[in-house]
Amino acid sequence: MGKYRKREGLFLAEGVRCVEQILENGIVTVEELLLDKTAGDISFLKRFDVPVYELESEDFLSISDTENSQGIIAVCQIPFEANVDELVLSEGVIIATDAIQDPGNLGTMIRTASWFDASGIIFGTGTVDSFHPKVVRSTAGATGRLAYQSGDLSKMINEFEEHGWDIVLMDRGEGSINLKEVVPDRRTLIVVGNEGRGITGKLFTSTRKKVRIDGKSEAVESLNAAVATSIALYHFAKV
């Protein structure tokens, strides 16, 4: 389905709260709303000037991506990617995902980055489509709020580094620094690695910080990628 999203330039947002938040934000253009005729109270839609189409349950469920649908889907325009040149000239915190593959993880990362008012997010090669229905649903309506770019992380991170950004690699390997000991910089790019193998080796250089989050490591192997991102954002967003 990803190739059809890109070809049509559209994505689907499903669920009452997700759709309502996207409409409230007013950042993503909503082309139309699709409703199951048996849906419950959707009176909030009266506040928005968007075409609404009611479908028979069978037709609606053929489009729905959830097991327990709430009976509402928004057909939205995919926002244009940000210009990398503009992102590197910004300030604040930017998240970079290195092949994050779980839709729930990515959606939560987008949602949390939005909560902490991150300056943007970069989706590295191998990362799940950020407009996949499961990702969109996990953002709880935050889809489209952040400037974003996708592509080769190695090339993009080099460009950020050349413009004075502090590059932080979330990694527990040898030589890593406890997050509590890192002083936030006004321009920080946080790289979060793949759920299984971590950050790609070529992204490690002597000029970049390896940062770990300490805890009861004897109790669990590691933190969930989205949880680690949330903790890092809480720390670095204090600038």
Number of domains: 2
Biggest beta sheet attributes = 7 strands, parallel
Shape: elongated
Secondary-structure content class: alpha/beta
| Topology order in helix (H) and strand (E) letters | HEHEEHEHEHEHEHEEEEH
How are the strands of the largest sheet arranged? 7-6-5-10-8-11-9
List the SSEs and their pairings:
Layout: H1 2-8, E1 10-14, H2 16-25, E2 30-36, E3 52-55, H3 57-63, E4 72-77, H4 84-88, E5 92-97, H5 103-115, E6 120-124, H6 133-138, E7 148-151, H7 153-162, E8 166-170, E9 177-178, E10 187-192, E11 209-212, H8 225-236
Parallel strand pairs: 2-3, 5-6, 5-10, 6-7, 8-10, 8-11, 9-11
Antiparallel strand pairs: 1-4, 2-4
Helix pairs in contact: 5-8
How would you describe what is shown here?
The chain is α/β, with parallel strands linked by helices and 239 residues long. The chain folds into 2 domains: 76 residues, 60s Ribosomal Protein L30, Chain: A (2-Layer Sandwich), CATH 3.30.1330; 153 residues, 3-Layer(aba) Sandwich (Alpha/beta knot). Helix content is 29%, strand content 23%. It is built from 8 helices and 11 strands. It has a 7-stranded parallel sheet with strand order 7-6-5-10-8-11-9, sandwiched between helices. Strands 1-4-2-3 form a 4-stranded mixed sheet. β5, α5 and β6 form a beta-alpha-beta unit. α5 runs parallel beside α8. The N and C termini lie far apart (40 Å). The relative contact order is 0.16. The mean pLDDT is 94.
